[in-house]
């Protein structure tokens, strides 16, 4: 289940990033960051399950930071 979620979030992130690069229109950057953070959260949970606590906490910290940045972008735009 986590692998499917990770794949879906990563593909969505890639599509938003590709759209921005191709069209030079970055209005979906906040949504892209949100999905990037969600994929980091899923990877962090996977690392917890594997027993790699250090990497898991790092990935969860990256998720929290990207969540903060994307929410700020939603509120300020």
Automatic annotation (TrEMBL):
It comes from the Bacteria. The chain crosses the membrane at residues 5-22, 28-45, 57-76. Pfam families: DUF3953 (PF13129). The keyword Transmembrane helix applies. The keyword Membrane applies. Keywords: Membrane, Transmembrane, Transmembrane helix. This is DUF3953 domain-containing protein.
């Amino acid at each position: 289940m986590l692998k499917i979620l990770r794949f879906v979030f990563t593909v969505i992130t890639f599509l938003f990033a590709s759209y921005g690069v191709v069209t030079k229109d970055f209005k979906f950057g906040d949504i892209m960051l949100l999905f990037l953070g969600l994929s980091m959260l899923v990877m962090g949970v996977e690392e917890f399950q594997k027993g790699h606590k250090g990497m898991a906490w790092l990935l969860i910290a990256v998720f929290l930071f990207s969540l903060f940045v994307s929410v700020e972008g939603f509120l300020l735009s």
